[in-house]
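Annex B. Sample input.
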Amino acid sequence: MIRIEHISKSFNSHVALDDVSLHVKRGHIFGLLGPNGAGKTTLLRIVNRILTPDSGSVLFAGHPLCADDAEHIGYLPEERGLYKKMKVAEQALYLAQLKGVPRREAEARLHTWLDRFELSAWANRRVGELSKGMQQKLQFIVTVLHRPELLIFDEPFSGFDPVNAALLKECILQLRDEGATVILSTHNMSSVEELCNEIALLDTSHVVLAGEVDQIRQAHRTNRYKVVYRTETADKAPQLPDYAKTLSVASHCGNTEMLLELSGDGQDANDLIAKLMPQCRIVAFNEVLPTMNDIFIERVKY
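Annex B, continued. Sample output.
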């Protein structure tokens, strides 16, 4: 859907992007990650033709990105921007028509979205009367109302409570299932794991990590396992083999939870289970893969 090829961009002496290349597959949710100042917003603005790169190119659906592609892109910027004196419905319809949606069709779509976000009662109120969270909901509606092929969300969960964040995730997944391609820039790493097929991690203007989320987590595995077990007496701990190092132990409701790290001397989880089974009742056993938050912290150099 989007091919970003060797993009570079500088502002005076500051290099924002340096030879960045990314490919976003059609129908996928692509996570764009990185610390503040890594170049994420600059890259998103280039894809939206707000900024022009110093070098490199962006292909949209197989052709060089051009002005006509704006109707097929929905952009939710990190710096929210609504006309505070306009009424809610008036503003949404106005922006939808700018994107080429006939008014009657835009009205039907808007009614559905306002109901979903519980904003119908506010349709004829001025935007400035809405709470910050309600304005964020309206900003999301404005972004998706013209049913763009490509959706770009820059920190969409910022300021949302858990209930509304969950609703937003549900909407993003639905839009993907209906055929939209999504680029998601966020610091919310749990949302990355829930939503994204692939990610790219930017740091100091470069791509330092890219690929499928599951494969990246597997590649960064640390050979750690969580064992939940129960013994006849609570203070009787099982004897562990030499290749298993205890990292933490905690007791909950009669069970003991232990985090272990196995050394790389050829022993595996099956060997450990075989050693433990005669000594205790194993309630649960699973490998603990690093989270995207762990990987982010490991790979980003401040």
